[in-house]
Amino acid sequence: MKKFIISIAILLTGTAAVHAQSSTFGIKSGHLKYETQTSGGIQYNELWFDDYGKLRKQHDQIQMEGMGNYHTEILFRDGKSYTNAWLDDEKKDEAKETDAGSGGLNLVDPDDAYLKERKIEKLGTEEVFGKTCTIYSFKTKSLLRTISNKIWVWQGITLKMETKGALGANNLMVVTAFEENVSIPASTFDLPAVVK
């Protein structure tokens, strides 16, 4: 069971990585909800952002048969990320701090040189959730595996994502709710009481 929880954590981190990579968005603020079909079940994701993505918070929840729900929460602010993970009612007001890095993808309006340098292929456009999205394809490494990613992006925001990995680890994430330019309470981005 411990291996299963570790596998789920890796999957959640991979989904979070898409949001972590987008360093800027084309709109000031937003609140999105996603549903992800995974090879192990359904995962629910929620994203809040403000100041064009300089402040971001993501919450992921996956239902684990016989164990309840596994949650991760990642706060991105001031060049740092703060991660917390827990099972159902075990949440503590604490997080592990890591350097979020200075780079990342900016897919608001990338030019061809930017995409080529990062080995990202532009595939065309398609409508998702009423928005005309640009479709991008790229590969990432997770542990020793290569993952093929296909993302549908509007204003730098991922609205749909397909990932295909080894051993049938395929996932499909789709936005189910999206509020644009909404007022996000400042407390949403408060640091946890305990930072390790």
* N→C terminal distance: 26 Å
Number of domains: 1
Structural class: mainly beta
User: How many E strands?
Assistant: 12
Give the quaternary arrangement of the chains. Answer: single chain
DSSP strand content: over 45%
Number of helices: 2
The main sheet orders its strands as: 7-8-9-10-11-1-2-3-4-5-6-12
Instruction: Write down the overall geometry.
Output: globular
Radius of gyration, in angstroms, nearest whole number: 16 Å
Overall mean pLDDT stands at 83
At the third CATH level, what is the topology name?
outer membrane lipoprotein receptor (LolB), chain A
Helix share of residues? Answer: 10-25%
CATH top level label:
Mainly Beta
* CATH architecture term: Clam
Low-confidence stretches: 1-22
Task: Write the H/E string, N to C.
Answer: HEEEEEEHEEEEEE
Core attributes:
196 residues, mainly beta, outer membrane lipoprotein receptor (LolB), chain A, twelve-stranded mixed beta sheet, globular
How would you describe what is shown here?
It is a single chain. The radius of gyration is 16 Å and the shape is globular. A twelve-stranded mixed beta sheet has the order 7-8-9-10-11-1-2-3-4-5-6-12, with helices on one face. The protein has 196 residues and is mostly beta strands. 13% of the residues lie in helices and 53% in strands. The chain contains two helices and twelve strands; from the N terminus they run H-E-E-E-E-E-E-H-E-E-E-E-E-E. The chain has helices at residues 2-21, 112-117; strands spanning 30-38, 41-50, 55-64, 68-77, 80-87, 94-99, 121-128, 131-142, 145-154, 157-164, 170-180, 194-195.
